[in-house]
Amino acid sequence: MEEVSIVGVDLAKQVFQVHGAAADGRVLFRKKLSRRQFAKFMASLAPCVVAMEACGTAHYWGRELSRHGHDVRLIAPIYVKPFVKRQKNDAADAEAVAEAALRPTMRCVAVKTADQQARAMLFRTRDLLVGQRTQLVNALRGHLAEHGIIAGQGVRNIARLATRLEEGALPDLVRDLGRLYLDRIAQISAEIGKLDKRIAAAAKENDLARRLQTMPGIGPVCAMAIAAFAPDMRTFRRGRDFSAWLGLVPRQHSTGGKQKLGRTSKMGQRDIRRLLIVGAMSVVHWRGRDGGRPGSWLARMLARKPRKLVAIALANKMARMIWAMLVRDENYRDPTGAVC
Fold it and tell me: Fewer CB near the terminus (10 Å): N or C of the chain?
């Protein structure tokens, strides 16, 4: 068989579609393989470029195929879609992946290590538990509101709800079910506290996370999210590219030499973007109580823009500063108070 230059793979749980092509793009083979057959086939294949969509199992297979000498390239699905010809099926998807990887300007996703994915699992597990706790709190507030018991939003008002639940003239069934909610909320809160301690301990051991926490608005959770989800900062040419990767830059719709900028694109890593905006909101709230430091960028923005808009602009600026800090191996420094 002629030498294979690139292999496009459409990943799945059990059945994999493989598309092999020569250097000039000619099709050499199309195969549908089981999970075990795929592992054996790729191990027997001479080292070549292996392209896959950046999905849930792609990083595991990327590490496995790299051990056999293959050059693994993970491509975002949104960049593969334009190369699908007419009907969508596994064979067309595998061919589209190979076609996309042949483009010299195609952007690829770095293969994550097992340690990076473990840190990502820690962060995502905490995020899941926080969401479950929020659901339980909102459900309890809604049920008790139907019986005339009103409390503000947030976990901080749970103690008030518990007191009203015991003191109010409520049916026994409502009181019993309310206690069930409260027990589950307390259990999840304890689990979240344990995860917070693990994240804080991991942030102390990680050099990158320690450096990031020198910036106002970045705590252990945000620092570990950046360490877990962000690629090597040297893959970005400048800070704006990292900010665009997070989806913190305006959406462009320019033509004819005229620039038209819209709302924030939100096309990027959602977890880091959300945490940066939350951190920026805390900085705006804390430093903006008296209007900000006189003459600083934050003070000038607060004087003429809404606080939420200022927070998003600050998150954009924070992303660019994070890029500079990690590329230059420096801690945060703002000696003149130009930002905060």
Answer: N
